[in-house]
């Protein structure tokens, strides 16, 4: 009996689910206000207004992320969404038409769920999947985009994710999944950087690096100086030392601690997967600047035997035996992890220069979270003023090569597990309005005046129309 076939129309795939789509729909209770990011601020449809806002502020550049699951909805490079390709082309061209440079992030936590089903960032093959994705993006937009971030905040989707299971992918694997994710992310970044360096830099002469969130750490007492140095390596060095140090590989002090701890646990091999010499050479030197996001700081105290220690990196680490706390004079912002310490930004910049040399540093995020959705956000203005003053001191007095500063963020958005409770935007977004109306806050006027005057000596109460 012959086979009979029916031809069905092939429907284009616009976007596939990401790990965050699945995570918050499967566990809506984990988001404070039981919301989701299905529409959020709707920049997919309102991107033209967002470009107008960037122009109103006078921005020199606009940072945005490409969604892997939108451009490559199957996760792999053999299927490119025409819709996704057009969306980012239109956005990039519109920015350039306004004289605004696009600063593009390849990955901001939204792994295609189909790749997570295969292990995601704990699968060593993810570095090849990411490299293929990066090559597609560079080939599509590299002629116009000159500054790239490969990965945004791997400490969040590795350490926070696997040490707590609170954020996507919702898997609890402290000290194992977190370390695998860490290593594979570093290798993925390196492969993407090598691809750009060899295939695209000769034509386009752009810059590529990654960006991580770094908290400034300082000792709680005089007895905590040594452990604080170790904690800095555990926080910053685990993602920076393999790339920015002269010797490459993991920070030796951390490698030794985890190996010894693993042995005491009865394991034959360290929970921290080693780099091969080939991997060390692949990763070392894969940067054009140091990108980092700064919001908050912590103090470091040595944990006592038998102490209950919270999860790394916000409250402590059982692996290195520390508690992380805050000083009572540090005011809190919205969201439980956020405490304000502007001087920490300058101290962190100086530490990076001392640790990795006189390199170019790009502050890729810095901003203030508030539960107040109103327009007269004087607390946000004060936060920006205080932190920008520290950046200026770092440049003028410490000689740090800070070449860029990114206010986070342009507009209110879906803030992960905080949902729509915490607001970061210079512009308010009305999430009850189907049109997601954007309205400038006082901080937007303040920030625009700084850009226009190239000075911090501006009126904090400025209220000119944008």
From TrEMBL:
Catalytic residue list: 365 (nucleophile)
Keyword Glycoprotein tagged: yes
Keyword Glycoprotein on entry: yes
One example GO MF annotation: beta-glucosidase activity
EC number: 3.2.1.21
InterPro entries documented for this protein: GH, Glyco_hydro_1, Glyco_hydro_1_AS
The entry's keywords: Glycoprotein, Glycosidase, Hydrolase
Gene3D superfamilies (alphabetical): Glycosidases
Alphabetical list of Pfam families matching this protein: Glyco_hydro_1 (PF00232)
GO biological process, one term: carbohydrate metabolic process
Similarity comment: family membership: Belongs to the glycosyl hydrolase 1 family.
Subunit structure: Homodimer.
Protein's UniProt name: beta-glucosidase
Naturally occurring in which organism (per UniProt): Euphydryas editha (Edith's checkerspot)
């Amino acid at each position: 009996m012959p086979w009979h076939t029916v031809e069905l129309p092939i429907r284009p795939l616009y976007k596939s689910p990401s790990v965050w789509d699945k995570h918050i729909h499967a566990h809506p209770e984990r988001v404070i206000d039981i919301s989701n990011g299905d529409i959020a601020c709707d920049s997919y449809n309102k991107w033209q207004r967002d470009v107008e806002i960037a122009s109103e502020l006078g921005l020199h550049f606009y940072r945005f992320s490409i969604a892997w699951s939108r451009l490559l909805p199957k996760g792999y490079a053999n299927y490119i969404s025409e819709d996704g390709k057009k969306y980012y082309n239109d956005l990039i061209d519109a920015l350039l038409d306004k004289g605004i440079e696009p600063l593009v992030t390849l990955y901001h936590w939204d792994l295609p769920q189909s790749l997570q089903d295969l292990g995601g960032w704990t699968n060593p093959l993810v570095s090849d999947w990411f490299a293929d994705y990066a090559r597609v993006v560079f080939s599509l937009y590299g002629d116009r985009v000159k500054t790239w971030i490969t990965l945004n905040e791997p400490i969040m989707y590795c350490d926070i994710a696997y040490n707590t299971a609170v954020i996507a992918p919702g898997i609890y694997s402290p000290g194992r999944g977190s370390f695998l994710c860490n290593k594979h992310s570093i290798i993925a970044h390196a492969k993407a950087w090598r691809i750009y360096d060899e295939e695209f830099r000769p034509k386009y002469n752009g810059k590529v690096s990654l960006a991580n969130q770094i908290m400034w750490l300082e000792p709680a007492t005089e007895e905590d100086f040594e452990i604080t140095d170790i904690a800095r390596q555990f926080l910053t060095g685990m993602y920076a030392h393999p790339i920015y140090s002269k010797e490459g590989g993991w920070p030796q002090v951390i490698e030794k601690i985890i190996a010894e701890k693993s042995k005491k646990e009865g394991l034959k091999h360290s929970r921290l997967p080693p780099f091969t010499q080939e991997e060390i050479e692949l990763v070392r030197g894969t940067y054009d600047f140091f990108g980092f996001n700064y919001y908050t700081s912590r103090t470091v105290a040595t944990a006592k035997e038998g102490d209950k220690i919270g999860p790394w990196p916000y409250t402590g680490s059982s692996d290195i035996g520390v508690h992380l706390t805050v000083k009572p004079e540090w005011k809190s912002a919205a969201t439980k992890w956020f405490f304000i310490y502007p001087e920490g930004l300058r101290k962190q910049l100086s530490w990076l220069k001392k640790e990795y040399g006189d390199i170019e540093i790009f502050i890729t995020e810095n901003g203030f979270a508030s539960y107040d959705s109103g327009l007269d956000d004087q607390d946000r203005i004060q936060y920006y003023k205080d932190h920008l003053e520290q950046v200026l001191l770092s440049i003028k007095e410490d000689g740090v090569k800070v070449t860029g500063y990114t206010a986070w963020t342009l507009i209110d958005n879906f803030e992960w597990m905080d949902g729509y409770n915490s607001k970061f935007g210079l512009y308010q977004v009305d999430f009850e309005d189907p049109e997601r109306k954007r309205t400038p806050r006082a901080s937007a006027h303040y920030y625009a005046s700084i850009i226009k005057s190239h000075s911090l000596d501006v009126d904090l109460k400025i209220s000119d129309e944008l």
